[in-house]
């Protein structure tokens, strides 16, 4: 069966996410490098804070790098119509919706930021569409499930 157009779109979104993860990883590691240089110049009293910031920058970089690799693997799996990538997409998208709901709730309760709220709502809409689309009969059939 031919690959549905929506699957190609979702795979491309996955590759865009991977690119974003790589950019965040690079900026995180670059920031760690700047913090190392700053820590060498800092006084002894602020070195503990700098060490904490450096460790968080490294953790964020590694997490984003792993996320980028997962996004590429899922995107390739979607293009090849592998059912495991469909299932993984459903799981990760549902998880994203849960995290988005928490983010939106915190944004609304703690400090209302219009742009952040709009971004969260648009992203949530995309996630809902992806979930809806992955359960469509013709999409399930393309992945070899009924």
Describe this structure in words.
This protein has helices at residues 5-41, 47-79, 83-110, 114-134, 137-142. The chain starts with a helix and ends with a helix. With 146 residues, the chain is mostly helical.
Strand content: under 5%
Number of helices: 5
Largest sheet: none
Oligomer: single chain
Number of strands: 0
Structural class: mainly alpha
Helix content class: over 70%
Radius of gyration: 19 Å
Shape estimate? globular
Distance between the termini: 13 Å
Brief descriptors of the model:
mainly alpha, 146 residues, single chain
Task: Please write out the topology.
Elements: H1 5-41, H2 47-79, H3 83-110, H4 114-134, H5 137-142
Helix pairs in contact: 1-2, 2-3, 3-4
Quick structural overview:
The chain is mainly alpha-helical and 146 residues long.
């Amino acid at each position: 069966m031919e690959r549905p157009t929506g699957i190609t779109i979702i795979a491309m979104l996955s590759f865009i996410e991977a690119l974003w993860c790589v950019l965040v990883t690079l900026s995180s590691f670059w920031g760690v490098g700047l913090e190392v240089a700053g820590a060498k110049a800092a006084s002894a009293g602020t070195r503990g804070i700098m060490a904490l910031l450096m460790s968080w920058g490294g953790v964020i970089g590694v997490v984003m790098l792993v996320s980028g690799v997962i996004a590429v693997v899922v995107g390739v799996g979607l293009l090849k119509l592998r059912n495991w990538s469909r299932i993984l997409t459903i799981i990760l998208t549902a998880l994203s919706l849960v995290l988005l709901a928490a983010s939106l709730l915190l944004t609304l309760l703690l400090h209302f930021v219009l742009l952040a709220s709009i971004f969260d709502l648009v992203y949530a809409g995309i996630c809902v569409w992806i979930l809806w689309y992955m359960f469509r009969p013709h999409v399930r059939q393309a992945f070899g499930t009924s």
